[in-house]
Structures are given as structure tokens and as C-alpha cells.
């Protein structure tokens, strides 16, 4: 077993060392399709933030791809994007005001439209490198315009625990 220690400093040298170490630990034969989550929960961009908050909380989901009316990838919302709503509670407006505000907003107003994607046939090490370099928690797996999976940090943890 090889253990790699990572420093919490985030300079370019440390990032390059981390990417190099991680990419060498992943077998070259593994592809994104071998590890990705295939059952992807998505919502349409006109759904209210309250719906996304409920889906993410109840499904224990941290990243939620958002689709347009044709089912094509339009954006992504993370738990962190929804956490800003907690700011209202912290400012003293209470949970009722937070719920009312989230019920007024739709996902297209909160989602990020620049989504990092990858194909299922891509090497897993390439996906890991992309996620580390861009400091993101997931990549959406697409074939053409169709979402076929999502690769998250949790998928890498599951991979590490495989027998």
C-alpha cells in the first residue's frame, strides 16, 4: 500500500505534485465509464430552488446537473451554491424567510453554466487530473448532448475501497 501525504498549501508546485501522485495511483486501463455513477438525478432549469434543495438533501447529493427542455445539459448546481441561502438565516431572517426566498428563485438563476464534461471512454486518470487542477468535485459524463453519468469525488473513494 502506498500512502501519499498532501499538504494543504495550494501553490502550483504542490498541485502539480498532487496531480502527478494521484494519476500514477489509478490503473491506466480504467475508464470513466468503469467508475462513474450511471443513475444521474437531474432537474430542469425552471424548477424552484426549494425543489433542488429537497432533492439534494433527501438524496444526499452534492452535485445536480440541470437540463434544458430538450434534456441537454444546461448547467450544474452544487450544495455550496444552495448554502448561500443559509446566509439569510444567519442574518436573522429565519428559516421562513429563507424558504420563501428559495421558493421565488429558479435554478437557471443560481446554476453555473460552465460545466466541465468528459466522455465515458476517457481515461479515469484524465478525469482525476482535471478535477484536481480545476478544484472541482465532479465532472458530468456526456455522449454528444446526452448525460450518461456523473463522476464525483465519492466515486473515487468507492474505487479506493474496491477489493
- Percent in helix: 40-55%
In the CATH hierarchy, the architecture is: Roll
What value does the average pLDDT take?
81
CATH topology: CBS-domain
Largest sheet: 3 strands, mixed
SSE run: HHEHEEHHHEHEEH
Number of structural domains: 1
CATH superfamily: CBS-domain
Poorly predicted parts:
1-20
**Span from first to last CA?**
13 Å
Strand order of the largest sheet: 1-2-3
User: Radius of gyration from the CA trace?
Assistant: 18 Å
Which descriptor suits the 3D outline? elongated
Name the beta content range.
Answer: 15-25%
> How many strand units?
6
Number of helices: 8
* CATH top level class name: Alpha Beta
Notes on the protein architecture:
With 163 residues, this protein is α/β, with parallel strands linked by helices. The chain has a single domain, classed as CBS-domain, CATH 3.10.580. 43% of the residues lie in helices and 17% in strands. The protein has eight helices and six strands; from the N terminus they run H-H-E-H-E-E-H-H-H-E-H-E-E-H. The chain has helices at residues 12-25, 32-35, 49-59, 79-83, 86-90, 94-104, 124-134, 153-161; strands at 43-44, 63-67, 73-78, 117-118, 138-143, 146-152. It has a three-stranded mixed β-sheet. Strands 4-5-6 form a three-stranded mixed β-sheet. The two termini are 13 Å apart.
Amino acid at each position: 500500500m502506498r500512502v501519499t501525504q498532501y499538504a494543504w498549501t495550494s501553490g502550483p508546485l504542490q498541485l502539480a505534485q498532487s496531480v502527478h501522485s494521484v494519476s500514477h495511483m489509478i490503473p491506466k486501463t480504467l475508464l470513466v465509464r468503469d467508475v462513474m455513477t450511471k443513475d444521474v438525478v437531474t432537474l430542469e432549469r425552471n424548477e424552484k430552488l426549494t425543489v433542488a434543495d429537497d432533492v439534494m438533501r433527501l438524496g444526499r447529493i452534492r452535485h445536480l446537473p440541470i437540463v434544458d427542455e430538450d434534456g441537454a445539459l444546461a448547467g450544474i448546481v452544487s450544495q455550496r451554491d444552495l448554502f448561500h441561502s443559509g446566509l439569510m438565516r444567519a442574518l436573522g431572517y429565519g428559516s421562513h424567510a429563507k424558504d420563501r426566498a428559495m421558493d421565488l428563485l429558479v435554478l437557471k438563476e443560481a446554476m453555473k453554466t460552465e460545466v466541465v464534461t468528459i466522455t465515458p471512454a476517457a481515461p479515469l486518470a484524465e478525469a482525476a487530473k482535471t478535477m484536481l487542477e480545476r478544484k472541482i468535485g465532479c465532472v458530468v459524463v456526456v455522449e454528444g448532448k446526452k448525460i450518461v453519468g456523473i463522476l464525483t469525488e465519492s466515486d473515487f473513494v468507492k474505487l479506493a475501497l474496491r477489493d
